[in-house]
Design goal:
The chain is built from nine helices and four strands; from the N terminus they run ααααααααββαββ. The chain has about 300 residues and is of the alpha/beta class. The chain folds into two domains: about 210 residues, Cation efflux protein transmembrane domain (Alpha-lytic protease prodomain-like), CATH 1.20.1510.10; about 80 residues, Alpha-Beta Plaits, CATH 3.30.70. Helix 1 runs antiparallel to helix 2, helix 2 packs antiparallel against helix 5 and helix 3 runs antiparallel to helix 7. The longest helix is centred in the first third of the chain and has 32 residues. GO terms for molecular function: cadmium ion transmembrane transporter activity; ferrous iron transmembrane transporter activity; zinc efflux antiporter activity.
Length: about 300
């Protein structure tokens, strides 16, 4: 765990610092060249900054040991933070979408396409660099917070690439017989990009809420856990599992006749489940032999 914290915190800190730089630059640049698209990019980076600070807090709190006030720990903070991030990004996309549609209705919005193209190119390079670093860190740590941060930067990189392409087309449009249509390019880019990207944070929020309500874990993780249970050659009466934050929780009912071997079973499960990219938490329950005659079923 110390190794996880030692690598997770610097990665999230770097994300915060770079997001802050992009946020300030994007808002200032957007106001300077009168670009709604660059302002959207800057607003997204500002939200990313605030959410990255929230991730830093969550990374510190989620792994604190349980106590009397929190007898089961604080694992739920992690999906809660991810849900908040998803909702906040969704809100930015929706507000930007409505603003851009209003600008189109008002007859477009002129902007300096050349300077917008320059900013977008710089943004693409910076976002891809941070995304690549976080991708490498996520492979080392298997941290949901770093993965969520990585998704954020990937969205920003693709957004900046779309902006760069849009401004490049606007520059060409300004030099064509249809130059009068160039005023619609900036708000139209915002409509297309925000309308598309609103789906990504919605999925992020959905997955986080599933963890908060103790839904079944993702299919790949569930199947991996089921395979391990089969390797241990258990004959459980019932199995329930869920993932919350960095933990995979298994609640297993076994026949009372197996109670003598509970400790050995628990150790074997922990040893094998530790191979998964989560921290296992296993509960074994003794069920009377009469109850254990019921058909076994996965309830996960």
């Amino acid at each position: 765990m110390n190794l996880l914290l030692a690598r997770e915190k610097p990665a999230l800190t770097l994300s915060v610092l770079v997001a802050g730089s992009f946020a300030g630059a994007g808002i200032a640049w957007g106001l300077w060249i009168n670009s709604l698209m660059i302002l959207f990019d800057g607003a997204y980076s500002m939200i990313s900054l605030l959410l990255s600070l929230l991730s830093l807090y969550a990374a510190k709190v989620v792994r604190q040991p349980a106590n009397k006030a929190y007898p089961f720990g604080r694992a739920a903070i992690q999906p809660l933070v991810i849900a908040v991030k998803g909702l906040a990004i969704t809100l930015v996309c929706l507000v930007s979408l409505v603003s851009a549609m209003y600008a189109l209705w008002q007859g477009g919005r002129p902007s300096n396409a050349g300077m917008g193209l320059l900013f977008a190119a710089i943004s693409v390079v910076g976002c891809l660099a941070i995304w690549s670093y976080l991708h490498w860190v996520s492979k080392q740590l298997q941290s949901d917070l770093v993965v969520a941060e990585k998704r954020q930067w990937f969205m920003d990189a693709v957004l900046s690439a779309a902006v760069m392409l849009g401004f490049a087309l606007t520059v060409l449009l300004n030099r064509s017989p249809w130059a009068d249509l160039a005023v619609y390019a900036d708000p139209l880019m915002v409509v297309l990009v925000s309308g598309y990207f609103v789906l990504v944070p919605l999925r992020m929020t959905r997955d986080a809420i599933r963890e908060l309500v103790l839904a079944a874990p993702p299919r790949d993780l569930r199947r991996a856990a089921e395979s391990i249970l089969n390797e241990v050659e258990l004959q459980p009466v019932d199995v329930r599992m869920t993932k919350i934050g960095p933990y995979l929780v298994l609640d297993i009912d076994l026949a009372a006749s197996q109670a003598a071997s509970f400790n050995l079973v628990r150790l074997a499960l922990y040893r094998r489940l530790s191979q998964l990219p989560v921290r296992p938490v296993v509960f074994l329950n003794a069920i009377s032999d009469t109850d254990s005659d019921t058909d076994y079923a996965w309830q996960s």
